[in-house]
Design a protein that fits this description.
Oligomer: single chain
Low-confidence stretches: 4-11, 13-18, 159-167, 183-189
Number of helices: 1
Radius of gyration: 18 Å
Structural class: mainly beta
Strand content: over 45%
Shape: globular
Distance between the termini: 34 Å
Largest sheet: 5 strands, mixed
Strand order of the largest sheet: 3-14-13-7-10
Length: about 210
């Protein structure tokens, strides 16, 4: 009986995954629902510090909402800025082609359609250490997924902390799904409590976040 229940649960999970209409990807890697993407500040073409989900140099290699198996999708996205501690000259969300400045706005909705949709959320001319934490809720048909986006300039949010002290790191959950990427430098990473696998260079280790 116990084996039958376990099999039923595994089958339901498999059907749920196969029925997914879309997924988040960053630099070609799939991001799990509810995961956190950390983007560290880098110098842009104007010599200023900036955080961009889809850098102008190669926007398609940034943060995308992708239809499963190349499917055409149509849906809505809701962006909420949860925390913001650094000063940036300009914070904008350009998803769908229309840029909206978010200096005095903490929540915004957008509609989208396509097979691959760029998120295009940016903070330009960052003037001090700090971080920005945003929540992106996406709905396609009856399916909803959430991604947390953290822009960091030397500091991080308090979701939870995972130390990745050697080089650039990629963090996976125990199902092998990418839940966090850190494209530059070693820093404390932010994750919810749980067990994760951290890959940094040729090293792989299991980490428990409490």
């Amino acid at each position: 009986m116990k084996k039958l229940i376990t099999f039923s649960i595994m089958l339901m999970l498999a059907l749920h995954v196969s029925a997914q209409k879309f997924q988040f990807t960053y630099k070609g890697e799939a991001l799990a629902d509810g995961s956190t993407l950390v983007i560290n500040a880098e110098t842009d073409m104007f010599g200023e510090l900036a955080c961009e989900t889809n850098p102008a140099a190669n926007p398609a290699e940034g943060l995308l909402i992708v239809g499963k198996n190349g499917a055409y999708i149509s849906g809505t996205a809701h962006l909420t800025i949860l925390e913001h501690t650094f000063k940036a000259k300009q914070i904008q969300w350009c998803m769908g082609g229309a840029c909206v400045l978010m200096k005095d706005i903490t929540e915004l909705d957008k509609s989208f359609e396509g097979t691959e949709v760029q998120v295009l959320f940016d903070a330009f001319t960052i003037r001090q250490e700090g971080y920005l934490l945003a929540k992106l809720d996406v709905t396609v048909g009856g399916e909803s997924q959430t991604l947390y986006i953290e822009f960091s300039n030397g500091q991080h949010s308090n979701i939870s902390s995972l130390a990745a002290n050697e080089g650039s790191a990629v963090v996976f959950d125990l199902n092998g799904r990418t839940v966090m990427t850190n494209s530059s430098a070693s820093d404390s990473q932010m994750l919810r409590p749980g067990v994760y696998v951290v890959k940094s260079g040729n090293k792989t280790r299991k980490v428990v976040v409490k």
